[in-house]
Amino acid sequence: MTGKLSIIETKRGYQWSRSRRKFWKKGESAGHEQIVHDILIDCDADAIVLKIEQIGGVCPIGYRSCYHRTIESEVVGENLLEPEDVYKKYDEGAKDKMSNT
């Protein structure tokens, strides 16, 4: 099943994972789902926007959004959880990348 069909059929967020090399349901490991309310495409149909309701955290290191730091590395986002307390299979690589910036 492709990510597009999965999103349309289940009304849940799916994303392509380069590390897993497959589409996966957002929140598959932690249970933090994205309930899709609308799907928009741009004028040449090469990008989409999902209007969602987020249940739980989004960023694998515990923030509400993965965009939680300024270019100067100042943390401006809200930390919601400790990843080790939630994720069954936590990707330490993501945490290592953040500490090296």
UniProtKB/TrEMBL annotation:
Q: Which reaction does it catalyse?
A: 1-(5-phospho-beta-D-ribosyl)-5'-AMP + H2O = 1-(5-phospho-beta-D-ribosyl)-5-[(5-phospho-beta-D-ribosylamino)methylideneamino]imidazole-4-carboxamide
Residues in domain Phosphoribosyl-AMP cyclohydrolase? 8-68
Enumerate the GO terms in the molecular function aspect.
phosphoribosyl-AMP cyclohydrolase activity
Pathway field:
Amino-acid biosynthesis; L-histidine biosynthesis; L-histidine from 5-phospho-alpha-D-ribose 1-diphosphate: step 3/9
Provide an example Pfam family for this protein: PRA-CH
User: Mind telling me which InterPro entries this protein's record contains?
Assistant: PRib_AMP_CycHydrolase_dom, PRib_AMP_CycHydrolase_sf
- Keyword Transcription set for record: no
Q: Which GO terms describe its biological process?
A: L-histidine biosynthetic process
Any idea of its EC number? 3.5.4.19
What does the UniProt keyword field contain? Amino-acid biosynthesis, Cytoplasm, Histidine biosynthesis, Hydrolase
Gene3D superfamilies for the chain: Phosphoribosyl-AMP cyclohydrolase
Enzyme superclass (EC)? hydrolase
Q: Which PANTHER family match?
A: HISTIDINE BIOSYNTHESIS BIFUNCTIONAL PROTEIN (PTHR42945), HISTIDINE BIOSYNTHESIS BIFUNCTIONAL PROTEIN HIS7 (PTHR42945:SF1)
Name of this chain's protein? phosphoribosyl-AMP cyclohydrolase
Q: Which organism is it from?
A: Candidatus Methanoperedens nitratireducens
